[in-house]
């Protein structure tokens, strides 16, 4: 039994580590895998395109050629759907990383207002009557009644301040309708990774220092905006001012996509700044033979 296990282990190592035994890998692939694969394909083709089509002809009365063409089209659509679901997003990302260089990050004054805002509630400010970054961000985008939906990520310590801001803007000033605000433990967001445990906008203390959890929460908010309010990513801006370093890191990770807008509030003058992320083509170099090609570095991005 031990010898049999060693033989199977050696064979599996040939396919698992082709770089170590390239000659054996070539012969094993050519003389073992290729014939077996050919037999499997021929057998499947005979079953599907001959026997099955003959049966369909008998049952439904159409010509066998008609059913063969129909099955080919159905298989083509199925393969395309599978590629679309499982491969194309990965291929696009790989292609982008190969063709485009490191992202360019530009900081510019924020003039525009957005229909959607994601922000992090700060605890009550130490200086009385001084607005928090959350309040400043909401007031900016509420100009001209632009702001339609605002997701406020809170902790236990910052939830009272978020409620105070909402009461002031909704009740006293009537600047934003109450239905525009989404916050606290009662607002649930679908968790695609675990549907039994949806996200909520009240982050417990043990999760507040987890950047990965915050990244997943922000991604879920973007999905919520698309599914329930028909918002595209470029119609939402996310403010990361006033949170802990871990929460800020999670937001920045979630918004690394150029389609997602980022902003922060300068501590020097309380002015809004927008962070624009863009990619540019890698430089073209001359390779031997006189052919131009895009440089493809192996360093990760």
Would you kindly provide a brief summary of this structure?
This protein has nine helices and eleven strands. With 301 residues, the protein is an alpha/beta fold. It has two domains: 2-86, no CATH class; 104-278, Rossmann fold (3-Layer(aba) Sandwich), CATH 3.40.50.10770.
Structure, explained:
Strand 10 and strand 11 form a beta hairpin. Helix content is 48%, strand content 16%. The strands form 3 sheets. A 7-stranded mixed β-sheet has the order 1-9-8-7-2-3-4, sandwiched between helices. A two-stranded antiparallel ribbon has the order 5-6. It has a two-stranded antiparallel sheet with strand order 10-11. It is an alpha/beta fold. The chain folds into 2 domains: 85 residues, no CATH class; 175 residues, Rossmann fold, CATH 3.40.50. The chain contains 9 helices and 11 strands. The radius of gyration is 28 Å and the shape is elongated.
């Amino acid at each position: 039994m031990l010898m049999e296990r060693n033989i199977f282990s050696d064979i599996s190592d040939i396919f698992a580590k082709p770089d170590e035994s390239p000659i054996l890998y070539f012969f094993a692939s050519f003389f073992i895998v290729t014939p077996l694969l050919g037999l499997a394909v021929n057998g499947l083709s005979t079953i599907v395109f001959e026997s099955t089509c003959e049966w369909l002809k008998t049952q439904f009365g159409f010509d066998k050629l008609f059913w063969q063409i129909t099955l080919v089209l159905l298989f083509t659509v199925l393969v395309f759907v599978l590629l679309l679901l499982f491969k194309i997003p990965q291929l696009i990302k790989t292609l982008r990383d190969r063709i485009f260089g490191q992202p360019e990050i530009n900081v510019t004054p924020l003039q525009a207002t957005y229909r959607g805002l994601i922000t992090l509630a700060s605890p009550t400010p130490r200086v009385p009557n001084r607005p928090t970054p959350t309040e400043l961000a909401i007031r900016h985008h509420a100009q001209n009644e632009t702001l339609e939906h605002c997701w406020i990520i809170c902790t236990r310590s910052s939830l009272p301040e978020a409620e105070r801001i909402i009461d002031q803007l909704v009740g006293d000033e009537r600047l934003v309708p109450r239905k525009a605000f989404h916050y606290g433990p009662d607002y649930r967001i679908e968790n695609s990774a675990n549907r039994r445990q949806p996200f909520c906008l009240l982050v417990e203390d043990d999760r507040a220092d987890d950047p990965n959890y915050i990244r997943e929460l922000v991604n879920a908010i973007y999905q919520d905006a698309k599914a329930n309010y028909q918002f595209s990513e470029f119609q939402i801006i996310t403010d990361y001012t006033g949170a802990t370093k871990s929460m800020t890191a999670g937001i920045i990770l979630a918004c690394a996509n150029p389609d997602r807008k980022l902003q922060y509030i300068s501590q020097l003058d309380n002015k809004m700044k927008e962070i624009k992320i863009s990619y540019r083509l890698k430089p073209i170099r001359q390779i031997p033979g006189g052919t131009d090609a895009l440089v493809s570095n192996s360093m990760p991005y």
